[in-house]
Design a protein that fits this description.
The protein is mainly beta. The chain has three domains: 157 residues, no CATH class; 168 residues, no CATH class; 79 residues, Roll (SH3 type barrels). Strands 19, 20, 22, 23, 24, 25, 26, 27, 28, 29, 30, 31 and 32 form a 13-stranded mixed β-sheet that branches. It has a nine-stranded antiparallel β-sheet with strand order 1-6-7-8-9-5-4-3-2, with helices on one face. Strands 10, 15, 16, 17, 18 and 21 form a six-stranded antiparallel β-sheet that branches. Strand 24 and strand 25 form a beta hairpin. The radius of gyration is 29 Å and the shape is elongated.
């Protein structure tokens, strides 16, 4: 979802004859017209990306099942899918010819649906076959589109699905602007189109306090029909126990998936931060997960305090990092890219240290300051020089780490390098060449 679309016109039922339209028995075309036969062969393709050379971009809607893709005669893109128990065929091709391939006898009355968006208007005609099937056709940006189902779905269901496809494929938005996150921390409530159907939902942060003044927070989404959906965390009840909420936003991780995400982030207790990122898919609120590099586990939400999201859907979080001392760092996470709602660190990036006078080496002092001072020769790898040792009395500052095997550092003279270490999962300390870190440094300032 790139912006909140506003429906400006209701569904209009009109008699085709009264409107001066000639509706024949040849599938809705006037007797003087002849339907365009869909050419063969039908070539199956793996994904919607194969349609790029055809000049059209279509795909199945969110939550669709049994999705398959094909190209007809080298010109027509086709997506078959099921949704809510009904089977659909969605087609698109450049030009204005009838590509539906449906030659049923249709009722004389047709349903005309019209939507007014910020950029332009879009209209579609929906016809009903004698057997109860529904056919929707529309034309936009030099291409023709059709949606067919042999099932007798309702006017609302058919028109809503057409609208979802129009919005999903970007036909209604000629010039997309980057989505601007909606910050509703102050109000605790906002409206946003979370599931990409063109109709906004109401997002609310619900906070309760028990007899011990312990707070519990959760997210609710109220649909346009008044149905209230609540975020359920199962046995992970602690996820709702954020005591200080530091971020509450609606963001957009992927401008092409039609969905927006809700962010709830904060401090549970004593600077223990977590970020919950969830989606509303039209039927339920789904909580994201992330892969923790420290132990390879898969957990709900994201560890750390939410800092923001960029236009590429990359999320930045910040947290206290305990590697060769305790320091405040930031790390960027992205979705796995395989369709799962799971975050992984951006490839090749580490936790990057922030604050602590990194750019002022003369102030790397103090018993609990950011600098470490060696009291034994320290094995390191210097950038551009290879493996070596740093002499006793060297001051360095840890600048980044993956928390599991390597730490980046900077020296006062500007040189940089890395320290290789190991750490058992059940231990706090790191070992360098099998020796505890405390043997190498005058002080290793850990917090807590």
């Amino acid at each position: 979802m790139k912006k909140i679309f506003a429906l400006s016109a209701a569904l209009l039922l009109c008699a085709a004859l009264a409107a001066g339209c000639a509706v024949g028995s040849n599938g809705g075309l006037a007797p003087s017209e002849s339907p365009v036969q869909i050419p063969n062969p039908v070539t199956e393709v793996e994904s919607a990306e194969a349609f790029a050379d055809l000049g059209v971009s279509i795909d199945a809607p969110q939550n669709a099942g049994d999705v398959s893709y094909s190209i007809i005669g080298g010109t027509v893109a086709q997506v078959d899918f099921t949704l809510d128990g009904h089977a659909y065929t969605y087609r698109a091709a450049k030009g204005e010819e009838d590509i539906s391939g449906v030659y049923e006898t249709f009722a004389e009355e047709a349903l005309s649906v019209n939507w007014e968006f910020e950029a332009k208007g879009v209209s579609a005609d929906i016809k009903t076959a004698e057997g109860g099937g529904r056919l929707a056709t529309w034309y936009e940006a030099g291409a023709t589109y059709s949606l067919w189902t042999a099932d007798g779905v309702s006017d609302d269901a058919m028109s809503s699905l057409v609208l979802k496809l129009v919005v999903q494929q970007g036909l209604a938005d000629a010039e997309r602007e980057p989505f601007k996150p909606i910050d509703f921390l102050a109000d605790g409530k906002c409206e946003a189109d979370l599931d990409g159907d063109g109709v906004p939902e109401t997002v609310t942060l619900v906070t309760t306090t028990d007899e011990y003044d312990w707070m519990r927070n959760t997210i609710t989404v109220t649909a346009a029909d008044g149905t209230v959906h609540e975020l359920h965390v199962g046995e992970e009840e602690w996820l709702t126990e954020i005591q200080i909420v530091t971020a509450l936003q609606v963001i957009d991780l992927d401008p092409n998936d039609g969905l927006s995400e809700i962010v709830l982030s904060g401090d549970y207790c004593s600077a223990d931060y977590a970020t919950l990122i969830c989606r509303f898919d039209g039927t339920q609120i789904v909580l994201s997960r992330y892969e923790e590099p420290r132990d390879g586990g898969n957990y709900s939400g994201l560890r750390g305090a939410f800092q923001g999201v960029d236009e590429d859907g990359v999320v930045t979080v910040a947290d206290h990092i305990d590697v060769l001392g305790t320091w405040w760092g930031a790390r960027r996470y992205t979705l796995t890219g395989d369709g799962a709602f799971t975050f992984i660190p951006v490839q090749g990036e580490l936790w990057q240290r922030t604050i602590d006078n990194l750019d002022d080496p003369e102030n790397w002092t103090g018993e609990y300051g950011p600098a470490l001072e060696t009291k034994a020769e320290l094995p390191v790898t210097l950038d551009g020089s290879g493996e070596t040792t740093l002499p006793v009395g060297t001051k360095l500052i840890i600048t980044a780490s993956d928390e599991t095997s390597t730490a980046r550092f900077a020296l006062q003279d500007g040189r940089t390098g890395s320290i290789a270490f190991t750490r058992n999962a059940d231990e706090w300390v790191a070992r360098i060449n099998g020796v505890e870190e405390s043997e190498y440094f005058v002080t290793v300032p850990y917090a807590g």
